[in-house]
Write a structure and sequence with these properties.
Layout lengths: L1 E5 L4 H12 L3 E5 L9 H11 L3 E4 L6 H6 L1 H22 L2 E7 L22 H16 L3 E6 L2 E2 L12 H12 L1 E4 L4 E2 L2 E2 H12 L5 E4 L6 E2 H11 L5 E4 L20 H5 L8 H12 L10
Parallel strand pairs: 1-2, 1-3, 3-4, 4-5, 5-10, 6-9, 7-12
Antiparallel strand pairs: 8-11
């Protein structure tokens, strides 16, 4: 199958390229230098040249503070960009797989969100991503909208300063021997490698629609940090941060745990508990690179 991955050099995009290639697909990676999703002409030129059967969109304006400062730009990239891709997917007869976020919810629920829950985003980023979902679902019937949470992967995430939460914790532990982490915000840490494999699995179905796609279980950021240090045998003192010690510049959901109800109902869910995903990530991270032998 011919696959176009947009945002191919990002944290999730890199793993998607690898996962589809490992599945035997013909993958065309597209970066910002190849396609500008907010420009319909750029979208048409790039995708009509490839003629993909499946288009996977991971490109977005992810930086929450920047979205709040410039909501017009956030809407243009995240929402209108998704509409442009949906329109072109329909023109080409391709399937569109659009990656969304847990930030479409307000975090006021005390149990995992399911696909039927009403979204109430708290910030411009979440609003723009929710608008993207509506554009995709209204524009093309052959779509998958995929919400995930707490992503981390081996490739750099520019919106997070080039470092994911796992690497940040290990860096701070090495530098300081002590970290402070909030225990009042709950997520499901999800490896981008596992999410990529789930997206490949979903692409083989015709069960179009809205899906939550995260690892199983949940934890606070404090509990996540503790598991990182235990799994890596890293000596570090982990303290609970005070309620106002790390004030957020932009409102964020305190509880954004997602339940993969739709995946399970279609018998498509392949996620493991989040702890197993973390251990797999750490094992890959510590695996030595293969030796290069010159003939």
């Amino acid at each position: 199958m011919k696959i176009a991955v947009i945002g191919a050099n990002g944290q999730l995009g890199s793993d998607l390229v690898a996962a589809f290639a490992a599945n035997g697909d013909s993958v065309q990676p597209l970066t910002h230098s190849d396609i500008e999703i907010s420009d319909p002409d750029s979208v048409a030129r790039a995708l009509e040249a490839i003629q993909p059967q499946v288009i996977v969109n991971t490109a977005a304006m992810h930086h929450v503070e920047n979205c709040e400062r410039d909501p017009v730009k956030a809407f243009q990239i995240n929402a209108v960009g998704a509409r442009n891709l949906a329109f072109e997917s329909r023109q080409l007869g391709a399937v569109l797989m659009h990656v969304s976020t847990d930030y479409v919810f307000d975090g006021e629920k005390d149990q995992p969100y399911v696909e039927e829950d009403v979204p109430r985003p708290l910030n411009a980023y979440g609003i723009s991503k929710l608008a993207a979902e509506h554009f995709v679902r209204a524009t093309t019937a052959r779509h998958f909208v995929i919400r995930s949470s707490g992503l981390y992967g081996t490739s750099l995430c520019r919106a997070k300063g080039g470092v994911n939460f796992v690497e940040l914790m290990l860096k701070l532990a090495n530098e300081r021997g002590e970290v402070k982490v909030v225990d009042s915000e709950f997520v499901t840490p999800t490896s981008t490698a596992e999410l990529a494999r789930q997206i490949v699995r979903l692409s083989r179905s015709e069960c179009y629609g809205l899906y939550h796609a995260t690892a199983e279980g949940s934890c606070s950021w404090y509990e996540f940090a503790r598991e990182i240090f235990v799994a890596t045998n890293t000596p570090c003192r982990v303290l609970v941060a005070g309620p106002n010690e790390f004030p957020a510049k932009v409102p964020r959901p305190k509880y954004s745990v997602l339940e993969n109800r739709a995946l399970k109902s279609q018998q498509l869910n392949i996620f493991r508990p989040w702890q197993e995903g973390l251990h797999a990530y750490l094992a890959k991270r510590n695996k030595p690179a293969p030796l290069q032998v010159n003939a």
